[in-house]
């Protein structure tokens, strides 16, 4: 099992794609601008999309994916793409995007019987089984209802965790107490000079992230940093290295593929 990073940036700029991870071939985790770098054949194989929350940088690929893959999926005899998210996220997607104004309502197009998209609600703490994988829905603390995801193969012991967009999140560490981790993908968006904005916007800066990472034994598993705002990379890396040198948290980058089989 592998997780391909299509985008992991907190905003757009040349070379910066927003969050999208491809879990093997058929499962997409968040649908940011990184999705658009996949060829049509690969897009058409995506059967499931897991959304962490309703913000545009994570969902904009959903309506575009539905339209782009409609014909190929029909020709291949494939059913609807299932979009899994918290009820509030699905409601926002339906009301504000798939509303026949911003984008056609592909939950009932091209026909009600054969719609391109199907919406499937998740709840925090739920474990979803998808094609031999277990996916646990984790709490996140953002400005809108949000979640993260933990993934493992059904027969594996340890989980790869993606936090989604979140600020300080005690509930996350409570839920991770029972989960042995293989690796952690955790967000940090701003440098410490924007700590106040990070707190308002439901994100981490190195100061708040360092406090969270005290929950992790240094070196116990790889820690990957995601969702950095463009232009913040050097400052964040230096500030975090100064605060928590032993944790050796590394910046995730688009194009990287993480193995979920042997992530020890
Ligand atoms: N109070 C705020 N002031 C300025 N920018 C904000 C504020 N709240 C949110 N944002 C920005 O809006 C962005 C929405 O997506 P993000 O949560 O990734 O990151 C957020 C911030 O970059």
Summarize the structure.
With 264 residues, this protein is an alpha/beta fold. It is 25% helix and 24% strand.
Q: List the domain count as a whole number.
A: 1
CATH architecture: 4-Layer Sandwich
| Percent in strands | 15-25%
What share of residues is helical?
A: 25-40%
> Could you say what the CATH topology is called?
Metallo-beta-lactamase, Chain A
End-to-end gap: 14 Å
Bound molecules: adenosine-3',5'-cyclic-monophosphate
Largest sheet: 7 strands, mixed
Q: What's the name of the CATH homologous superfamily?
A: Ribonuclease Z/Hydroxyacylglutathione hydrolase-like
Number of helices: 8
**SS content category:** alpha/beta
CATH top level? Alpha Beta
> Which whole number gives the mean pLDDT?
96
> How do the helices and strands follow one another from N- to C-terminus?
EEEHEHHEHEEEEEHEHHEHEE
| Gyration radius over CA | 18 Å
Shape: globular
Question: Low-confidence parts, pLDDT < 50 over ≥5 residues?
Answer: none
Protein name: 3',5'-cyclic-nucleotide phosphodiesterase
GO molecular function: 3',5'-cyclic-AMP phosphodiesterase activity; 3',5'-cyclic-GMP phosphodiesterase activity
InterPro entries: Metallo-B-lactamas (IPR001279), Pdiesterase2 (IPR000396), RibonucZ/Hydroxyglut_hydro (IPR036866)
């Amino acid at each position: 099992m592998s997780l391909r990073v299509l985008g992991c940036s907190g905003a757009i700029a040349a070379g910066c794609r927003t969050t999208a991870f491809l879990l093997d071939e058929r499962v997409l985790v968040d649908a940011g601008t990184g999705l658009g770098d996949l060829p049509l054949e690969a897009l058409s194989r995506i059967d499931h999309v897991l959304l962490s929350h309703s913000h545009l940088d994570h969902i904009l690929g959903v309506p575009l994916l539905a339209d782009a893959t409609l014909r190929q999926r029909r020709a291949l005899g494939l059913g609807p793409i299932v979009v899994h998210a918290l009820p509030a996220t699905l409601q926002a997607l339906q009301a504000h995007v798939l509303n026949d104004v911003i984008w056609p309502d592909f939950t009932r197009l091209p026909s009600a019987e054969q719609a391109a998209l199907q919406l499937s609600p998740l709840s925090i703490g739920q474990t979803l089984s998808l094609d031999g994988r277990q996916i646990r829905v984790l709490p996140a603390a953002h400005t809108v209802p949000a979640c993260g995801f933990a993934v493992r193969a059904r027969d594996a012991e340890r989980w790869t965790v993606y936090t989604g967009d979140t600020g300080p999140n005690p509930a996350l560490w409570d839920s991770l107490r029972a989960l042995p981790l293989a690796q952690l993908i955790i967000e940090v968006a701003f440098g410490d000079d924007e700590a106040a904005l990070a707190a308002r916007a439901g994100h981490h800066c190195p100061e708040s992230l360092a406090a969270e990472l005290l929950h992790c034994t240094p070196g116990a598993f790889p820690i990957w940093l995601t969702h950095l705002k463009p232009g913040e990379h050097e400052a964040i890396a230096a500030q975090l290295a100064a605060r928590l040198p032993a944790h050796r948290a590394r910046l995730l980058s688009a194009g990287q593929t993480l193995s979920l089989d042997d992530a020890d």
